[in-house]
Amino acid sequence: MSDVMTAPRAKVEEKLFQNRYLVDAGRPHIKVKAHTTPSASLLAMTTLCPAGCYTQTESGQVEVAADGCLECGTCRIVTRKTGEIEWNYPRGGFGVLYKFG
Ligand code: SF4
């Protein structure tokens, strides 16, 4: 058996925990536009976002808490046609700080 097969595996959650995130208080870099019913694309973000930033409220709207965002751009692409979110990179010095290794 090769070394790759026998090497211990780290879970994705454990890897993500290594990262740090600097919050830009009061200036979220992603916003969900006001809506009553989310599109299927926006609703899908509650399961697609790898950082778990999207949640659905009890009344059915979708919210985003950009703290912890990995800046992967998935939500930007998935909702591109519906235009339900505003997406920008965080200001310099804020946002995710990746830790490799
Ligand atoms: S950019 Fe990626 S990590 Fe950040 S909120 Fe969108 S899907 Fe989640």
From TrEMBL:
<dbReference type="InterPro" id="IPR012206">
    <property type="entry name" value="Fd_FixX"/>
</dbReference>
<keyword id="KW-0479">Metal-binding</keyword>
<keyword id="KW-0408">Iron</keyword>
<dbReference type="InterPro" id="IPR007859">
    <property type="entry name" value="ETF-QO/FixX_C"/>
</dbReference>
<keyword id="KW-0813">Transport</keyword>
<keyword id="KW-0249">Electron transport</keyword>
<keyword id="KW-0411">Iron-sulfur</keyword>
<comment type="similarity">
    <text>To ferredoxins from P.putida and C.tartarivorum, ferredoxin I from A.vinelandii, ferredoxin II from D.desulfuricans.</text>
</comment>
<comment type="function">
    <text>Could be a 3Fe-4S cluster-containing protein.</text>
</comment>
<dbReference type="GO" id="GO:0005506">
    <property type="term" value="F:iron ion binding"/>
</dbReference>
<keyword id="KW-0535">Nitrogen fixation</keyword>
<dbReference type="GO" id="GO:0051536">
    <property type="term" value="F:iron-sulfur cluster binding"/>
</dbReference>
<dbReference type="Pfam" id="PF05187">
    <property type="entry name" value="Fer4_ETF_QO"/>
</dbReference>
<feature type="domain" description="ETF-QO/FixX C-terminal">
    <location>
        <begin position="45"/>
        <end position="98"/>
    </location>
</feature>
<protein>
    <recommendedName>
        <fullName>Ferredoxin-like protein</fullName>
    </recommendedName>
</protein>
